[in-house]
Structures
1.
Amino acid sequence: MSDLLLGDFFGYQGLLSDAEQEELLALREFLDSEVRPHVNSAWAAAEFPMELIGKFAGADIVGRSYDWDGRPRASRLFTGFQALELSRVDPSMATFLGVHNGLAMGSIMILGSAEQRQRWIPSMMAMETIGAFGLTEPEGGSDVARGLRTTARRDGDEWVLNGAKRWIGNGTFADVIVVFARDVDDDQVKTFVVEKGAPGFTATKIEDKFALRSVQNADLSFVDCRIPAANKLEGGNTFRDVNKVLKVTRGGVAWSGVGCQVGAYEAAVAYARSREQFGRPIGGFQLIQDLLARMLGNVTASLGMTVRIAQLQEDDALRDDQAALAKSYVTSRGRETVGWARELFGGNGIVLENDVIRFFADAEALYSYEGTREINTLIVGRSITGISAFV
Ligand SMILES: Cc1cc2nc3c(=O)[nH]c(=O)nc-3n(C[C@H](O)[C@H](O)[C@H](O)COP(=O)(O)OP(=O)(O)OC[C@H]3O[C@@H](n4cnc5c(N)ncnc54)[C@H](O)[C@@H]3O)c2cc1C
């Protein structure tokens, strides 16, 4: 491969096949030419760049994790590097696709019947239908497994949903929203697909959000929202079923966490070479080299962890505690890396056109969503000691 990812110091991309490396290069070129020009203006406006949906659809990046229609899935390592490349350019776009492709399509692929998959997946693959994933609630974040309050009541050929969801990515414009609600009859959390326009369903954009600004996060409301009985996913019958989806996507967030670091690191390297002070490039100062070396150490350790996660996934051997450690470790190192990149830029580090302040802010959201550091640490701590410290 002629153009190795700058932060891939140990050459992890060499584990990909030649064809995969070529495809990744093509993806990088697509992202640099078609996506990068839009990201800062979209981030500043806190608007989703809708014009990119058709371009993403044409770039063959959606649905690569799934065997579908006779086409085998790509390797876990390849889809991991795909997420890295997306986030390296824009963690907001990586999140948009992570929600559509991972959380929403993943729920339907993992929990839906063959008929339900056939109903929604083809148009989601083509990005004619965009998905969202509604788990978190205003009063139920980290404790959502226990504290999920949205209810579902079976009424003849329909389910009736009541409750609220918060933070739902793509929620303002999604066509299908995977929604988790507690069945009043057996108290179990079940999985439903709510389609845009369902009576009693409304979505309101969360304003003044200062990370992942292009992602449209919404408050969702369900007031006697009626959906057909056929919209309950056949395999979504308890919270354990939700975890089947989250185990897969948590690894994807770790990959996005590496990409966010790589984007900031690459910007810092370029700036260190070009910015001159005291008559020489700042990259010639020992303290600047120290920042760069520390950033590269974080990127390299994070990438090593995610590569191993992908290998374990490939063997269907990834454990929850391993995914939890990777997600929390990578996003914690991410906060350091983007902070050092911001520092290296001096005052220019807070100007959006230099990108690093965007990575700096976005790293905060990656750190907290899909399980905060504290919650993932409790999962790891339980694994280490055999004692649960969850309250
Ligand atoms: C940008 C963004 C996008 C998101 N997208 C989606 C989405 O598409 N769909 C969706 O369903 N959700 C989404 N979320 C929600 C996200 O998963 C939650 O924010 C996350 O799970 C944390 O919940 P919370 O924000 O309510 O924090 P809380 O649970 O209220 O936690 C607050 C603090 O208390 C700590 N804490 C809580 N319990 C414990 C404990 N037992 N021990 C120690 N510390 C504890 C937490 O770690 C945290 O630091 C998104 C969030 C963000 C910020």
Note: Residues 264 and 355 are 7 Å apart (CA to CA).
2.
Amino acid sequence: MNVLPTKLCCTSYPLCRSITGDGLRESLRIIQEHIPLEIREVPSGTPVFDWTVPKEWNIKDAYIKGPDGEKIVDIACSNLHVLNYSVPVKCRLSLNELKEHLYSLPQHPDWIPYRTSYYNENWGFCLSQNQLAELQEGDYEVCIDSSLREGYLTYGECFLEGETEDEVLISTHVCHPSLANDNLSGIALAAFLAKHLRGEMLRYSYRLLFIPGTIGSITWLAKNEDRVARIKHGLVVVCVGDAGSMTYKKTRQGNAEIDQVVEHVLRHSGEEHRVVNFVPYGYDERQFCSPAFNLPVGSLSRSPHGRFPQYHTSADNLEFVQPEHLGDSFSKYLEVLHILESNKKYLNLNPKCEPQLGKRGLYRALGGNLDSKSAELAMLWVLNLSDGNHTLLNIAEKSGVSFQNIRDAADNLVRHQLLSELP
Ligand SMILES: [Zn+2]
């Protein structure tokens, strides 16, 4: 993976994103520099199942001035300083009154927490515990120059047409402000998957969603209810740039093809990893896996959200996300998609006993070469299980041979007219 995804993270990092507003629009525009992204706007007030598209939030400035008139908290230093979705406010108040609107993290006294109040009109500031502890008695001036008005919910959609109408859904949330692993790493990975896939011949069509968390997936599902049956596999991309090992959260179905594929990739990576069952908590997989949809959508991340101390704090910064981890996650995603693309069923054209491989040059003339022996073993598995009921992944799983070796064996047998691909 080249340096561009890291660059995309750096360019987008300072923007004050939220579930609506110009920070989100600008972030989508940056993604648009890399891939063909349709930007969609859904008006505030639009009913989406049990929810309503909220008012649009924008912010120009936010600060607190201390008793001596000095700015002590300033959104210009970090956009995490403002409670995301704060309503406008300009007033003077005492330290005690102010403290009701301040949020800090006592367990990590240097870090600024990330807090939101999307669906409950409120205002507030986030600051480090150390800074909070230094505040003196006196009068404070607070200013939040924000607006919360009828506007739009904005999201981005990239569609890559494949040979079939069957779709693979890749979804990532785009609503967090200056936080790198959650969620810029997901944005960068999804954008560069799209960029990579554009250059390939695809069996599936791919739909990549760049949506605000929760309300974005609910809105997309509400507006595309008639099309969701096309989604055959899906992944929610989150937290893919930290040093932790890979974690896969299975689909609600629990044994979908995507579950089998991701588990295969992780097992054959030889690296430490976790596979966990679906729980109705987390990111947008909750909506895709709600009972009426129950889509085969899992989530592949590194450290799971909420399970690393930097989560939703100023310490989830650009140093926390490292290119080698982002690159490793990217290659795992690509491997998963390549398996999905080629996980087909084949038919043994010579099913009465084994075909004679030796006369076709497919069986070693001399014994003892381990490489050729494993290639032969893979061919025998493919021939035996290509009865129309097993996919290549089923064969890889039953045999313990990697998907790549099973696929190579199948290609070889097709070339020798011993196998044919089933539609
Ligand atoms: Zn988050």
Note: The pocket of zinc ion is lined by residues 176, 182, 305, 312 (CB under 6 Å).
3.
Amino acid sequence: MQKLANDRVMVLASEDGRTLRIVDLVRGTVWEQDGRSLFAESTSDRATKRESLRPCGAKAAGAHGIEIDYETDNARARLSLSLRDDGVVARMPLPEQGHVTSLTLPGSFVPVSEPRKYLLPIMQGMLWDGRGEAFELDLHEAWHMGFSMPMFGCMGSSGALLTVAETADDLTWWLGKDREGRSWCTPWHRSSLGAVRYERAVCLYPTDAGIVAVAKRYRRLVRDAGRFLGWEEKIEARPSLERLFGALMCFIGYCRDDVDYAAACRKLKSAGFERALVYPARFNVYHPGFAMGGLPPIDVSEEQIRQICGLGYDIAPWTWLNEGLDREDIRSAFRKEPTGRALPHWEIDGQQWYLCCSSTLPAAYRKSLGGAASGMTWDHFDVITCATVGECYAADHPGHAGHAEPRTEDRAHLRKLLHSAQFSVPGGKAISSESFNDAYSRECDIMSVKAWPQYGAWLFWPVPLTMLVYHDSIIHSWWEQHSYNNHQRGRINAPFYQYGGGRARTQAALDALTGSPPDVFPFGTNYAYDAGEGSKTYAYRMRLEDPEVQFALATALPVAQLHRRIGKQEMVHFDFLSEDGYVQESAFADGTHIVANFANCARAASPALDAIHSESWAEAR
Ligand SMILES: [Zn+2]
């Protein structure tokens, strides 16, 4: 038996490497590696093969390490283990033999003789207790339904185990359940430029059982890594961010409309909204000559922008530079596949956009500041944090001259882009983008996409994991198509949960529970997709006087007022108050205590509240 131990954690490996355990010496929980979760992929003769990794022995590596070697018919891999004060570091050095393109070490660890639940970083966070039929999910970074943070938790009854990928640029989380009822979740280290290419590292930290404990351990890691910027620190550097607190997220549609935007904003102000984040006012793109739902992009006049800012509101363009239409002047910036082919991406109504290499974006953004982005007080970047990072094989891009660009380098350009945008106007400006993705935790102030709070028979239960980590640093808002009153993009069915807009009461209750700003589409024109017609679009419009808009605004106002008060506070507590999950409570560092009922009937809530109505929230005193 090989053994590593300090006063908090112990690692035990059998000599044959088949049994690997992490023992939590504080809580007594024993975590065992699931050998069936170990795989490697390798290529030979251009075919990729996935094979089980077989352990072939564990040995001591100096006084403070254990090494376990693995093999498949075509490849070899090594797991190198060492200790931190309260955790275990698992390193996967570069495989010596075989063309290994991906591997799942150190695999899934599950508690011995205890039930388990998984805390998953999907959207705002999901809790899965292992129910359901057999399935497999491979979570990529962002992309709405992928992972929002490079971590997950497995929770037993006596303790939990937080797994964090220290190398997360070429990573997926692979989770599932087989027909025998065995469940797993493991890192899957993916290829970088066609190979494993660099050493991968994962850390495992035993914590107390519970969502809050796992989230707070991860939060400390983010802080220790210098990737956490609190609101006070942000506001000191960019005073304009003070206006985020108490604001209405105010989407006004992608398409041109004849509505008087400034007059409509004045009415919002009269209705009690002291602050608003209005977007998009214009399209900040390479070539504006395209149509959405048959209409050109919105283009609010300079005078109207001036008047809207004069109300104390903030206004943003739709900065969409990560891809462009196929035009001579930007073709050289297109991201390239190994074959040299440009990558088609967004498409509507027969118009095709191509991905641009991230190395070209900081300069393209600087150039745009004097154009469509001028006069704006915050900036929204379309899908930069959601679907942009990638590899580029163009041989002639000055940003990575002479070599193909891996995702890690590509991301550095994106961080530079967003960081420079923060300071592109006096007083600084807020930066937002799509999908919550904490690879950009220092660069973004608002990130988006949340699931509907639905519990009971739903397999994945949304929980405020991102906000337990980041509430005092980043706003987690709704996808722009999912305002309280916007049902046009309908209900999106994800595996085991749903997301969408148009459910004002439920969405407001979730925003109150998590101290987030409300989100309404009060006026303007937008496009949606014709059912069953692929990328064919149609336009629809909202007006302030619409009863759905008025209802959404009335629902939103108290949420905005709450956000003004608690938006900068750390979220310190979350719990379910009912067995079926529908009644929940949260608390913030200033003592604010919120109870929400997401059920469609009234419920007794807590000793602090007699009852709360269906789909509503209340502050407990
Ligand atoms: Zn490139």
Note: The chain has a mean pLDDT of 96.
